[in-house]
């Protein structure tokens, strides 16, 4: 990975070029990081702003650059050679005294490489999200009494525009009974399930797909339970296909959860599963998460079932790899968030829960019982907590 960085150093240290080359070689060996030194004239618009503090005595050079830097946060990369860390501590204090914020990236070459990758992942995610349009198809479900969003905050702090779409427009599209074939529809049609019910679910996928194209959406959330009575099917399958295609699809008109999916997905580069905490065993330190839809590219294997609450339509029962996960949720006003890492212990098949069910081990459960951010939470495979926290530092 090529990472643009700026550099400041002492003019009196004759061995800096050799030490810098050694450190950069270590970054590449340990993490495939290839620092690209930038012309100082570009520091004004740098995002992210990563500055390599090559040695002690760099403080004066940095102070001269400080007024040009417009980045909200400054990352100081240190090698551990030539008093680089000591100089970085002086510089970070200087930044904070002037109302700025920053962080020293220090440690082994492997630690530094991982942090640099996470910083870049967070920065690139911010750029991709800015300007994204998210559709709200219908109003939030009636029971989501605490899951409201501040659209002004989404626009100002994330650059997200919310596009309202009526449920009637979705139903009009559904009544065209058409969808475009792709690898995912072909896979679904090869699976065992009632052909008529599968066709209805795919017709709804086609309707959602056309709304995405019409409004230029990067994602949408649907007041899906109304569809049970209106068209006698569910949105579970359509949302699953959209998510597999990289178009974020959420349930129940829950906009905060959709935004959480967008953030987690863009930061991690992984599909995001919106689910309900269903039960906890505090003695064993375990929790069950479940929902009737998930991205089709997330499970190792899956089968088609009916939607849990209604027993109609088509839902996904997937087997997610039993490995590390990240759990995330952000509030509708972007003021609160929850991040934790854990591990999937077991995939379950409990007839009293939504169709995809995972038993997980997290670090703590007090949050869920004392200060939860509503009910739905989002997970992805892998541990992306560090990159996620770098992203959230800008909110």
The gyration radius over C-alpha positions equals 24 Å
Q: Order of strands across the widest beta sheet?
A: 10-11-16-15-14-17
Helical content stands at 25-40%
Mean pLDDT: 95
Tell me how many strands there are.
Answer: 17
Category by helix and strand content: alpha/beta
The first-to-last residue Cα distance is 26 Å
In terms of per-residue confidence, which ranges show pLDDT below 50 for 5 or more consecutive residues? none
The global form is: elongated
Q: Note the total helix count.
A: 13
Biggest sheet record? 6 strands, antiparallel, barrel
Strand content: 25-35%
Order of helices and strands: EHEEHEHEHEHEHHHEHHEHEEEEEEEHEH
SSE layout and pairing:
Elements: E1 2-8, H1 16-31, E2 34-37, E3 49-53, H2 59-66, E4 73-78, H3 84-97, E5 101-105, H4 109-129, E6 133-137, H5 151-158, E7 161-165, H6 167-174, H7 183-189, H8 195-215, E8 219-222, H9 225-230, H10 236-244, E9 248-251, H11 255-268, E10 273-281, E11 286-291, E12 301-305, E13 315-319, E14 324-330, E15 337-348, E16 356-362, H12 366-370, E17 377-381, H13 385-392
Parallel strand pairs: 1-2, 1-3, 3-4, 4-5, 6-7, 6-8, 8-9
Antiparallel strand pairs: 10-11, 10-17, 11-16, 12-13, 14-15, 14-17, 15-16
